């Protein structure tokens, strides 16, 4: 099984003789053993096996195995949401007094976590801009810097990551490079192939793809060398809460996800529900087909938007005129760029409202990345507490409209948007 398309359909579950063809939903909190010694060995990690669904479950495990295969890593850990996956990954390497770097062009929820909540815990996020030089980014690093973070395709800014630049910085400083690849998915880009050490997903988006299940995941490359690395003392000293386990030494090629599971998940309890793992796994069966179609539809719509007099600007990495076009061609499969398109509407907030009300196919929802086309105007919804000046500062103009282009017919999609633009004149 080498092609990504085959992995989408087949990876993560292989039935034994006479067993269910589709992965069963193991809706059980716990697992029974014949002897207390066996249970003890599981707690000591001497044996592999399930014992409590907070720490592992066969249905969730199937999805973890599939995501590991799709991203080309060594192990994965699923979580209750994208946010909890990011929180688990961060707390896996940071404690009070530590810091990390992130671009400021990231998902709004992640921005709040990094800029407000973690700061209150004494973990400092140092923001850089996507276009900053290597030197400028490096000037933010000190011996307490634990990782560098970015999104493969920034939501909603649409910026495509410069993998070469960020990988070379992370390698130079022996530091983890963590990438939120939610919008790209492994069917467009596999960050590990470009030097990322940890890939994070909100599986809520394209991986589920049908808007049924909130979820998240962390996948590790298995390539990062934690052994003796002074940036990661917690991976190199015996863990008092885990029988003196030294993760860098004892966890093979999976130290990051192993620690996130047996320490982070044990203590925070943000596990994915088996039912959600099942639905997400079902979604990933068609991921390769959907991402090609989302991308094709989005490009056709972006081209139509570029020509419309009511449109001030369009942002989509698949457009030759876009500043991210070259990077998308370099890092993305077949130049596919997902279904997320943003544009600026002439006439500001008022026109944005009229436009949204006139749409029929596109529904107004706080979500992106499922089969059904949808629309969001951040300035009047997710970002409505911000002034126009604040909006400009965080890269979300007052007239920015985010479209999540679905898998319906391109002609219906374009007709709906053009019609709504015409009525917003
Ligand atoms: C939605 C999203 C998240 C948060 O995921 P949830 O599953 O909603 O918690 C994180 N990163 C990106 C890029 C997202 O789009």
State the total count of DSSP E strands: 12
Shape: globular
CATH architecture of the largest domain: 3-Layer(aba) Sandwich
Relative helix content: 25-40%
The CATH topology label of the largest domain is Aspartate Aminotransferase, domain 2
How much is the radius of gyration in Å? Answer: 22 Å
Q: Return the average pLDDT rounded to an integer.
A: 95
Number of domains: 2
- CATH superfamily membership of the largest domain, which one? Type I PLP-dependent aspartate aminotransferase-like (Major domain)
Physical arrangement of strands within the biggest beta sheet:
1-7-6-5-4-2-3
Beta-strand share of residues: 5-15%
Bound ligands = pyridoxal-5'-phosphate
Structural class: alpha/beta
Unreliable residue runs: none
Class of the largest domain in CATH? Alpha Beta
Q: How widely separated are the two ends? A: 52 Å
């Amino acid at each position: 099984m080498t092609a990504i398309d085959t992995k989408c359909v087949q990876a993560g579950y292989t039935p034994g003789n006479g067993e269910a063809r589709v992965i069963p939903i193991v809706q059980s909190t716990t697992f029974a053993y014949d002897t207390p010694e066996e249970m003890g060995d599981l707690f000591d990690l001497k044996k592999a096996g399930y014992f409590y669904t907070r720490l592992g479950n066969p249905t969730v495990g199937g999805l973890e195995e599939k995501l590991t295969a799709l991203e080309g890593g060594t192990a994965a850990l699923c979580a209750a949401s994208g946010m909890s996956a990011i929180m688990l990954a961060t707390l896996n390497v940071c404690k009070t007094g530590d810091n990390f770097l992130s671009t400021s062009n990231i998902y709004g929820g992640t921005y709040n976590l990094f800029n407000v909540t973690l700061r209150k815990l004494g973990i400092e996020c140092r923001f850089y801009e996507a276009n900053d030089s290597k030197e400028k980014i490096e000037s933010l690093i000190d011996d307490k810097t634990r990782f560098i973070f970015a999104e493969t395709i920034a939501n909603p800014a649409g910026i495509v990551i410069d993998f070469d630049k960020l990988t070379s910085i992370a390698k130079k400083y022996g530091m983890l490079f963590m990438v939120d690849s939610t919008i790209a998915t492994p069917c467009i880009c596999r960050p590990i192939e470009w030097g990322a050490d940890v890939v994070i997903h909100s599986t809520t988006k394209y991986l589920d793809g049908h808007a049924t299940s909130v979820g998240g995941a962390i996948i590790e490359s298995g390539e990062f060398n934690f052994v003796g690395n002074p940036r990661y003392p917690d991976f190199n000293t015996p863990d008092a809460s885990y029988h003196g386990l030294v993760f860098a030494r004892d966890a093979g090629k999976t130290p990051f996800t192993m620690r996130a599971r047996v320490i982070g998940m044990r203590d925070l309890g943000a596990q994915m529900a088996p039912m959600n793992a099942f639905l997400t796994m079902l979604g990933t069966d068609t991921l390769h087909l959907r991402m090609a179609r989302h991308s094709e539809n989005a490009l056709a719509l972006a081209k139509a938007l570029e020509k419309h007099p009511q449109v001030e600007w369009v942002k989509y990495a698949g457009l030759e005129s876009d500043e991210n076009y070259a990077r998308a061609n370099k890092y993305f499969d077949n130049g596919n760029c997902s279904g997320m398109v943003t544009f600026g509407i002439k006439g500001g907030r008022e026109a944005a409202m009229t436009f949204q009300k006139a749409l029929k196919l596109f529904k107004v929802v706080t979500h992106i990345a499922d089969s059904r086309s949808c629309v969001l105007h951040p300035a009047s919804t997710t970002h409505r507490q911000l002034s126009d000046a604040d909006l400009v500062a965080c890269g979300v103009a007052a007239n920015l409209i985010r479209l999540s282009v679905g898998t319906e017919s391109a002609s219906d999609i374009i007709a709906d948007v053009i019609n709504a633009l015409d009525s917003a004149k």
